């Protein structure tokens, strides 16, 4: 058989262009792209008729917490990558706040083996920065092939397991308090030596502790009170310090899950000055605001918290301007029971990997962004940022045949019980829209078709070093 798979008559969409063509796959690689009017000779094992459909470079979710290993009662990589495949995602980057965390080379290799057995899509692995506790591990982790470095700025962690403390209060036992700015500066210096992305959760613990105490004393338990304890200022202060540290050290700073308009302005300014600082945001900051808590409830609790309408508007503009170049889910599942309770004591986070692409595709119909921009923020820019382009994030001859086929006219309704994740906690239960990934292809192999998961786990580790040398 000359070809493994031909996708005929689809609209190929990249961030730069959109045109009708046939795409030919052989041995997991895009072997040819040719005008539909001039089919290439040779038989194919599989032919997909994509007439009227859009053929996108495989979409990526660079921010996924699958809790594996350590809290697989909440989620595991088998389920989260099925959810990814179902949602049109071909590569995920797994976050390092597992138990054990990905804080050294040994744990990185163990994690690569663990995830490799369960992965329905390709995956990269983040390394965690634990201040002075693992500074000397950062360079070896870089050499071992991590996708980037993550620092949970503002979080306290458990002293033995290093698990995040969601509702930390000063004086708690068995806790490493949030690192001080001096420690963080050391992280920036060390990460800068690797030349890899240093991604930060950006919320100031000092501000949160101080303000939360006051709000809690008032006895208020509502969402507005939560926001008073973790206000825009908590993000602003940390983004500001992060930018200053990046300027000082040369670290390639990436601001995770930006939730405030003010942060967008600060990042825009730093970019205009020529610093290689990048940012992402997530669907919950783009589609929700504080008012939605009345209808959604505790499922919506996430850190940083969802802010106000004016922030949402500035975030969309930030995407349009290119200040925010990545959209990702921050898939952070907890069980139903864990999320059901007092707003101050439940953990932060919700599912998202499966709903990321549909929500953005529907936003195309709403005029919020173009389909080419979707390709940019969900595929091309993430791949470029993390040094895996054009192997991932492109539709070019000779690169991985990672492809998401999309039906822009197909309606969807998000139903919690239909989610593929273990946890069903979502802010979008009952939401409907139009624009659905109908086929997910990872290195030539179909892993989802018409909503059904196809085949077992065959995902592979992606490392920046797996790039061809000439790229
Ligand atoms: C994340 C988690 O639970 O791992 N929770 C969240 O609210 N976003 C941690 C994080 O990304 O900050
Ligand atoms: Zn975070
Ligand atoms: Zn996260």
UniProtKB/TrEMBL annotation:
EC number: 3.5.2.5
Keywords: Hydrolase, Metal-binding, Zinc
Reported cofactor(s): Zn(2+)
Root EC class: hydrolase
GO molecular function: allantoinase activity
Pathway: Nitrogen metabolism; (S)-allantoin degradation; allantoate from (S)-allantoin: step 1/1
Amidohydrolase-related domain segment(s): 54-447
Pfam family, one: Amidohydro_1
Protein family per UniProt: Belongs to the metallo-dependent hydrolases superfamily. Allantoinase family.
Record's subunit section: Homotetramer.
Name this polypeptide is given: allantoinase
